[in-house]
Amino acid sequence: MALHLSPLHPLFAAEVRGIDLRQTPDAAGCAEIHRAMDRYAVLVFRDQRLDDDQQMGFGAALGPLEQTRGVVDAHKHRLKHHNMADISNIDVDGNLLAADDRRRMFNLGNQLWHSDSSFKATPALYSMLHARLIPPEGGETEFADMRAAWDALPQRLKDEVKDLVTEHSLLFSRGKLGFADYTDQERQDFAPVQQRLVRWHPGSGRHSIYLSSHIGTILGWPTPEAMALIRWLEEFATQRPFVYTHHWRQHDLVIWDNRSTMHRARPYADKTFARDMRRVTLTDVAPTLAQRMAA
Q: Which value, in Å, is the radius of gyration of the alpha carbons in the chain?
């Protein structure tokens, strides 16, 4: 299989043509996709009319899947597979989520810049989001190239941040929006975990800044000083030259590497229009602190 790749941005992201993902790629095809991900970090597959089983099968062919979802009211799940993330505004009865539904309030956190599952001890590798139904306008997804941001960082700051360790939690990201409505079990599930602030990507041989709205502190730093630095880094890393905006079409499937990118959803009229997006997420090989850095 030879992928046909068309760059979508000067730094990263490419559209892939010539493949029907209803047929799970063989080992050679998966290896080619991994190589393309190493180079582009975001791949866009147009007109992929997948069902849930086919999307799950494609994800599993690329690597181990995450088995848990970072959500509230986890028992209210309308999809067939318990580990497929429902990135929608639709309830279990097929209706729009009520304006005051805590799931809707919680999901507004997706509009903050983040990396998927950085709040888990072993975070996400790839995310693959499939558009089943999209609103007439809005709801784009923006991606920022954290490798390019690292490359552009002044050397003084590289030296300052390269060995720092942060804490990530959904409690931190949702707290930025004033969301604090958790059960005791959810608070336990969302307990903070430690992650490197700078990562090395073995496939590309590049470093990246591992940022996310889930960061709530830097170990050993006073919280105000830590969060001032994190905010500066986020603003630096999400400058327009580092960002690709994906305008969704129905049946798009987009894969991104959470080790190399950060992303956020853009608003849409979610109290009026349905948006049905389904995500399969691959887990990384180990906690970031257990992964080696470049020599």
A: 18
Under DSSP, the state recorded for 66 is P
Find the helix or strand (DSSP H, E) in which 253 lies: strand 253-257
Report the half-sphere exposure of 280 (CA within 13 A, side-chain side): 23
Q: What domains can you pick out in the chain, each with its CATH number? A: 4-285 (3.60.130.10)
Q: Could you tell me which of 24, 33, 86, 13 has the C-alpha nearest to residue 55?
A: 24
Task: Inform me whether the pLDDT recorded for 295 exceeds 60.
Answer: no
Percent of the chain, pLDDT > 70? 99
Sheet holding 243-246, edge to edge: 243-246, 141-145, 261-265
What is the value of pTM for the model shown?
0.97
Other beta carbons within 10 Å of 146: 30
Work out the average pLDDT over 73-95: 96
Q: Which two tokens stand for residue 249?
A: 């079409």
Q: Which two tokens stand for residue 236?
A: 């630096």
